[in-house]
Task: inverse folding
């Protein structure tokens, strides 16, 4: 079903050719996870929810794959977190951006940023460095789903807290993000929203969610689980 959504998104001009390749790479890592949301992803998602709740200017960055796979989940999370939505594309065209904006608006987004960029992320060349002052440029927390490592690193260098959703625990995206959620994006976004609603208004639980998360330990546990599923080692990570 996910593949068909991406194929339709490609046919409709929402997904780039390179996005299909990226999804296939992610599928491989999802197989190694057993195609399920593991405990480490739940811990990371709760930490992500805490970051969004503590943020003053949160932004949800959406690319073509997210728009094709789970636009409603992205908009629902943005509304729950009082976050702005900004389209960020590696392979940018006005036509593609307009189509993605229309998809998000159909799902209830009231103001989608990105069509008229007026700032640039320092250190990023080309269209992927374009952003808006109202959105990503002045944000303090940015959620990037299915992004590239260069962009994640550049946002961190700007002093932003970055939440990344990436099925590859070895990627620069996962290893440089403030919080890295190793899960399939259609599962991760609703999980963050659910966690956000659970801990909203509970400052102690918000702090605990952040204290429980350690990026290196979390990614290490994910890697050990993948290795275990391959039969490389016997150590296991609990999952649910």
Result:
């Amino acid at each position: 079903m996910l593949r068909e959504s991406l194929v339709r998104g490609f046919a409709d001009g929402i997904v780039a050719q390179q996005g299909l390749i990226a999804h296939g790479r992610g599928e491989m890592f999802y197989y190694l996870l057993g195609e399920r949301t593991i405990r480490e992803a739940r811990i990371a998602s709760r930490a992500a929810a805490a970051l969004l709740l503590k943020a003053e200017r949160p932004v949800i960055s959406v690319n073509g794959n997210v728009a094709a796979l789970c636009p409603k989940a992205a908009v629902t999370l943005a509304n729950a977190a009082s976050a702005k939505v900004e389209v960020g594309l590696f392979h940018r065209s006005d036509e593609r951006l307009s189509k993605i904006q229309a998809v998000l608006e159909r799902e209830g987004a009231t103001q989608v940023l990105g069509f008229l960029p007026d700032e640039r992320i320092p250190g990023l060349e080309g269209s992927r460095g374009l952003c808006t002052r109202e959105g990503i440029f002045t944000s303090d927390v940015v959620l990037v789903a299915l992004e590239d490592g260069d962009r994640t690193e550049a946002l961190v260098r700007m002093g932003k807290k970055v939440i990344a959703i990436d099925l590859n625990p070895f990627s620069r995206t996962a290893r440089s993000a403030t919080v890295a959620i190793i899960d399939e994006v259609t599962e991760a976004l609703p999980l963050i929203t659910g966690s956000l609603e659970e801990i909203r208004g509970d400052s102690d639980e918000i702090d605990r969610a952040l204290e429980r998360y350690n990026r290196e330990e979390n990614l290490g546990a994910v890697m050990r689980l993948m290795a275990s599923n391959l039969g490389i080692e016997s150590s296991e990570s609990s999952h649910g």
